[in-house]
């Protein structure tokens, strides 16, 4: 399961509306791909379609889909949003990551 903080929920709803998505029916696709300075990086985008093998979660009124492979890396992750002058944007608090890079956008297990 992936959790969504209140700050992330508000920013997701705002960005989805700006991009023509509906937070009540469309999805936030969260995944992991090779790359980044620590070996794996996070992928976050909006999607209207669910694939057959996707895992589907809903937390804090946000529908999240994760592909089967990425799910193993993301179990227990909390998606947060940090704004303001020193904000990082979306932050993945992933209990499975053993090492993360300085920017927090990539990790290793």
Can you offer a commentary on this structure?
- This protein is α+β, with helices and mostly antiparallel strands and 109 residues long.
- Helix content is 18%, strand content 39%.
- The chain has two helices and nine strands, in the order E-H-E-E-E-E-H-E-E-E-E.
- A six-stranded mixed β-sheet has the order 4-5-2-3-9-8.
- A hairpin with a 6-residue loop joins strand 6 and strand 7.
- The protein is globular, with a radius of gyration of 13 Å.
- It starts with a strand and ends with a strand.
Characteristic terms for this protein:
single chain; about 110 residues; alpha+beta; six-stranded mixed beta sheet; three-stranded mixed beta sheet; about 40% strand
List the helices and strands and how they pair.
Blueprint: E1 3-4, H1 6-18, E2 27-34, E3 40-47, E4 55-59, E5 62-66, H2 68-74, E6 78-82, E7 89-93, E8 99-100, E9 106-108
């Amino acid at each position: 399961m992936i959790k969504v903080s209140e700050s992330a929920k508000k920013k997701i709803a705002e960005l989805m509306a700006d991009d023509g998505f509906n937070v009540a029916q469309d999805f936030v696709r969260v995944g992991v791909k090779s790359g980044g300075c620590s070996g794996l990086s996070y992928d976050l985008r909006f999607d209207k379609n669910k694939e057959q093998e996707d895992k589907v979660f809903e937390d804090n009124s946000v529908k999240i889909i994760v592909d089967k492979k990425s799910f193993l890396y993301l179990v227990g992750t909390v998606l947060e949003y940090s704004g303001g002058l020193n904000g990082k944007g979306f932050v993945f608090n992933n209990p499975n990551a053993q090492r993360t890079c300085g920017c927090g956008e990539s990790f290793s297990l």
